[in-house]
Inverse folding.
């Protein structure tokens, strides 16, 4: 039927009820009874028109599946067998011929439908062609219209040809109801009049389809002076040629009229069938585009993500997107895009978050050498957020071309005990997932002066202490003792430091025949080992010691004595750092191997404590740095690691820096630092280092809860102390 599929189910039910009432009236007219007889005289009604109307209007109004064809033909076979024409003597040979012909047709459709189901899914090309041929036959001739009309016509000729009133009345009923379909036509005309005069549902045509950006995007030539804005709903043909809905995106240039780009929406089959019944779309070659009223279409509760989140739609997935980098063709200028903002795009069924790291202006040529300028944003993959695990997980694939990209809503982050920072403008927090790995696999905090390095280092030290990891800070700034006062035994430490200073000063006049015995280096090492052995004893409850290598005046004899005098020199901070590092390793070696972290050496102002070979203050610093690096490299299996804090990446020994598996990169300007960090965080994130705000950092490494590099907003120091120290200090 031409118009049945465009009607609602309620309308089809009303039409069915009306037709059945008409049939009862015809029964009264031809049989003088409202209810048709149950003999052969009633076959036209029970197995003919009634079954035909029920199938057409309610059971299979859209298309006929093989199982529907089987159902129709089985019902027809049962009805024909009940007639028993072959054995009854009152029927002629012509009647029997009609019965056989009708039964043959019905059985042929039945067998074709059964065979179609049996052959489904075959890989053989010839069988696939047979399957398609059977499907065409079953879909066309297995409909209620054909099957039950055959039964009806048999009943009409066989049982009513000798009674003119019956023959004429029943024939006219079939001709009108099946052929003319007056009620269906009236309903269709009424609906189209309603669409025409209501005016708010469909506006006048404003353009035509000129192409498709497969998948999901259609290009429309805007021919009429008709305003279209972002988010308007369009009725337009999809890639498969069937009408559907699309949401207007942006204009992409001028060429024989304005070009509008729109994204196809996913709609239900009923709505698509209804759209196909509209007059402009009845011709399959008509490329017309209309604007629609979304409320009239029932899109307020649409499941399509583009429509539901259109206010946050920022762009589409562009070309050259790979597994880690998302290219976004930005389609809007009214959203607050900036470095660090999160966007979301679906990969399969998973919503995956990306972080914007760059923006580029692009230009492309459209028709007739016109050019179009647009903005392309670049975003790095973070992963999909697992609420149950409070972490991001990696999705190792790419989104589909032209997939919608949505801007993630901003939120005010709530400080939590475990978070070291948050993705900017969100409540997604990043934690130190493995505090042992932070220590044993070494970590580094790199950034210029005043970017927030020391506050981050202080927070990490407090987290180590809370995890019962001993911390030895070699601090040239004298900030750690003040900031970490709740964990630091100030008076006892002052006594120990004064003893070390006294031992160091006495070495200036200690000249020995054995050069190694001269000066105060040896007794200073002995005292350091004594203090650290007591501190690293597993039975002690002290977890923090702080030393400033500059405070110690330690003498070294550099030559053989002559006339009771010898050349003496003081140890540099680099050489004193080596003493503390090697002593710590020796003590931990005595305690045995360990899979977990036992002690972390914090090198504050590391460029002065472990300098690169070309940045040393004296030749002795080269040897000292190598000694410190060797101890750190050996320390992991004994639970020893370090944390490097520096503002001058180029001046820190790469022997240690290259072993740092967790890196916190704050604002960096120098080319050497950017180049070094690009090996860790990639060139995309390295490119934003110079523009990072204070207390913003790019975090990457095995200790982080996010396996990819990510730009975060670090905790406020006061907020951290408020929520962390109360149960810990």
């Amino acid at each position: 039927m031409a118009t049945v599929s465009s009607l609602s189910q309620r309308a089809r039910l009303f039409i069915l009820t009306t037709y059945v009432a008409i049939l009862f009236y015809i029964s009264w007219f031809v049989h003088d009874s409202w209810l048709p007889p149950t003999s052969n005289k009633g076959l036209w009604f029970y197995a003919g028109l009634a079954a035909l109307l029920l199938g057409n209007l309610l059971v299979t109004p859209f298309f006929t599946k093989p199982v529907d064809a089987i159902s129709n033909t089985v019902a027809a076979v049962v009805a024909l067998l009940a007639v028993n024409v072959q054995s009854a003597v009152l029927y002629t040979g012509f009647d029997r011929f009609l019965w056989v012909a009708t039964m043959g047709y019905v059985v042929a459709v039945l067998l074709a439908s059964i065979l179609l189901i049996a052959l489904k899914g075959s890989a053989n090309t010839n069988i696939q062609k047979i399957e398609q041929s059977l499907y065409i036959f079953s879909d066309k001739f297995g409909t209620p219209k054909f099957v039950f009309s055959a039964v009806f016509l048999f009943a009409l000729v066989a049982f009513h040809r000798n009674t003119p009133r019956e023959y004429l009345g029943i024939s006219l009923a079939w001709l009108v109801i099946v052929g003319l379909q007056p009620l269906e036509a009236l309903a269709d005309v009424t609906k189209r009049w309603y669409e025409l005069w209501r005016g708010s549902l469909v506006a006048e045509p404003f353009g035509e389809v000129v192409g498709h950006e497969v998948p999901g995007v259609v290009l429309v030539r805007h021919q009429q002076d008709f305003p279209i804005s972002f988010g308007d709903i369009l009725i337009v043909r999809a890639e498969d040629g069937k009408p559907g809905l699309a949401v207007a995106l942006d204009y992409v240039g001028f060429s024989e009229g304005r070009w509008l780009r729109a994204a196809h929406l996913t709609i239900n089959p009923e709505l698509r069938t209804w759209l196909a019944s509209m007059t402009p779309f009845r011709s399959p070659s008509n490329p017309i585009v209309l604007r629609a009223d979304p409320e009239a279409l029932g899109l307020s509760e649409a499941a399509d993500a583009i429509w539901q989140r259109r206010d946050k739609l920022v762009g589409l997935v562009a070309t050259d997107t790979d597994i880690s980098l998302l290219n976004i063709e930005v389609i809007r200028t009214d959203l607050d895009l900036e470095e660090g903002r999160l966007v979301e795009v679906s990969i399969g069924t998973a919503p995956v978050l990306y972080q914007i790291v760059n923006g580029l202006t692009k230009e492309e040529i459209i028709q007739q050498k016109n050019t179009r300028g647009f903005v392309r944003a670049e975003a790095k993959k973070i992963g999909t957020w697992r609420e149950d695990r409070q972490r991001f997980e990696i999705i190792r694939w790419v989104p589909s071309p032209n997939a919608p990209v949505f801007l993630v809503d901003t939120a005010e982050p709530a400080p939590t005990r475990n978070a070291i920072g948050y993705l900017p403008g969100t409540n997604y927090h990043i934690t130190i997932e493995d505090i042992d790995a932070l220590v044993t696999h070494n970590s580094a905090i790199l950034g210029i002066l005043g970017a927030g390095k020391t506050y981050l280092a202080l927070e990490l030290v407090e987290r180590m202490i809370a995890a019962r990891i001993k911390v030895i800070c070699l601090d040239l700034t004298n900030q750690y003792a003040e900031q970490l006062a709740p964990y630091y035994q100030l008076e006892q430490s002052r006594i120990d430091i004064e003893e070390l200073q006294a031992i160091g000063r006495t070495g200036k006049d200690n000249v020995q025949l054995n050069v190694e015995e001269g000066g105060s280096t040896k007794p200073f090492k002995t005292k350091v080992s004594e203090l650290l052995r007591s501190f690293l004893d597993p039975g002690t409850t002290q977890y923090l010691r702080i030393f400033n290598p500059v405070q110690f005046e330690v003498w070294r004899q550099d030559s053989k004595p002559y006339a009771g005098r010898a050349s003496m020199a003081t140890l540099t901070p680099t050489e004193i750092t080596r003493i503390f590092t090697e002593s710590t390793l020796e003590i931990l070696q005595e305690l045995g191997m360990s899979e977990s972290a036992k002690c972390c050496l914090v090198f504050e102002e590391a460029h002065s404590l472990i300098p690169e070979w070309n940045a040393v203050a004296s030749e002795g610093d080269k040897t000292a740095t190598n000694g410190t690096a060797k101890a750190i490299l050996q320390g992991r299996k004994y639970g020893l690691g370090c944390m490097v804090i520096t503002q001058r990446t180029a001046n820190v020994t790469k022997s240690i820096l290259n072993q740092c598996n967790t890196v916190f990169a704050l604002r960096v300007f120098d080319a050497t630092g950017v180049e070094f960090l690009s090996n860790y965080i990639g060139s995309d994130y390295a490119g934003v280092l110079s523009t990072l705000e204070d207390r913003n950092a790019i975090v990457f490494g095995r200790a982080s809860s996010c396996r990819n590099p990510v730009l975060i907003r670090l905790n406020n120091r006061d907020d951290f102390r408020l929520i962390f120290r109360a149960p810990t200090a």
